[in-house]
Amino acid sequence: MTWLITGGAGYIGAHVARVMAGAGEDVVVLDDISSGVPRRLPADIPLIKGSALDGGLVRQVLAEHEVTGVVHLAARKQVGESVEQPARYYRENVGGLTTLLEAVAEAGVRRFVFSSSAAVYGNPPDVDLVGEDTPCAPVSPYGETKLAGEWLVRAAGRAHGIATVCLRYFNVAGAAAPELADTGVFNVIPMVFDRLTRDEAPRIFGDTHPTPDGTCVRDYIHVSDLAEAHLAAARRLAGGGEGDLTVNIGRGEGVSVRELIDLIGEVSGDRRPALVEPARAGDAPRAVADARLAAAELGWTARRGVREMVESAWAGWCLHHPEAARH
Ligand SMILES: NC(=O)c1ccc[n+]([C@@H]2O[C@H](COP(=O)([O-])OP(=O)(O)OC[C@H]3O[C@@H](n4cnc5c(N)ncnc54)[C@H](O)[C@@H]3O)[C@@H](O)[C@H]2O)c1
């Protein structure tokens, strides 16, 4: 079996490629290096530089590498940018997936894993745990492209006999090694690191939400655990798993923004108090995954805790921002 990993030079993709290769799977990466970093991949993992939007190239890669399964991570992922450039997000995320699925169906590839996101739920209703049957109501074009992507994956699966798994990642954090860390500043952990590095207090948006400490509660998942979930999904499909499966990938445990900032203070040694700003319109007070379906169907549960995420993310941040380490 050979797995094609699209977006495999990205933050999550490089972890997935390494975990799958480390577990003995043959993998090949297709990445256009728009936000990926080739040196995240070890030399023995083939990297083809090109776009999932290039149908001719995708067909060639599927044939030349005798690909039998695809893990599709390649996408644009910035929520704010997707609000400003919705057509680009639909073209790249949904268009890229369309091209890839056509080539996959034509080549007779029968296994497909898709990177979805908790963004498909939008601001989930006031529930303790967000189950896969919670209504999907994305609030950004990015989230819409992920939900449309899931629909397309399941429909193509039914039409062409492709077994599929859609993984809805919650808040991904941490790194297996500092050089594999996320270099973007789009999520709360790097945003707090960025504020501290600039000698500014971290910000909390609202502390009167109906949560134990009044700040928003989220579910954080270590990228190494997430990578292992992809391996579990790939193994399920390789083992004859049929039909479609859509599962949350989270820890099923909530961490508040205040708890997260306190932990970052401990890890970084910079414990300055946070500034409390007004709550942002539409921010759900709580969004925590019900992670039981992934355990039942994939035999996978997260093993790493939030401290490990923050410590490894901080080590990665300091590699790229040496001035932060001196703080
Ligand atoms: N990081 C998160 O918190 C998070 C949460 C939920 C879902 N996701 C999804 O996980 C996937 C990976 O995210 P990431 O955080 O690793 O982002 P990333 O930007 O680090 O990785 C995306 C990779 O895809 C490549 N790429 C983009 N468009 C491409 C194209 N058309 N053809 C080939 N390669 C292309 C980029 O060069 C990059 O290497 C994305 O689909 C994203 O939407 C991420």
Automatic annotation (TrEMBL):
Root EC class: isomerase
Span of domain NAD-dependent epimerase/dehydratase: 3-250
Reaction(s) the record says it catalyses: UDP-alpha-D-glucose = UDP-alpha-D-galactose
InterPro entries in alphabetical order: Epimerase_deHydtase, NAD(P)-bd_dom_sf, UDP_G4E
N-terminal signal peptide: none
Cofactor: NAD(+)
One family name in Pfam for this protein: Epimerase
EC code(s) of this entry: 5.1.3.2
One Gene Ontology molecular-function label: UDP-glucose 4-epimerase activity
Pathway membership, UniProt: Carbohydrate metabolism; galactose metabolism
NAD as UniProt keyword: yes
Keyword Isomerase: yes
Gene3D superfamilies per record: NAD(P)-binding Rossmann-like Domain (3.40.50.720), UDP-galactose 4-epimerase, domain 1 (3.90.25.10)
Entry keywords, A to Z: Carbohydrate metabolism, Isomerase, NAD
Superkingdom of the source species: Bacteria
Homology family: Belongs to the NAD(P)-dependent epimerase/dehydratase family.
Descriptive protein name: UDP-glucose 4-epimerase
Organism, scientific name: Streptomyces anatolicus
GN (gene name): galE
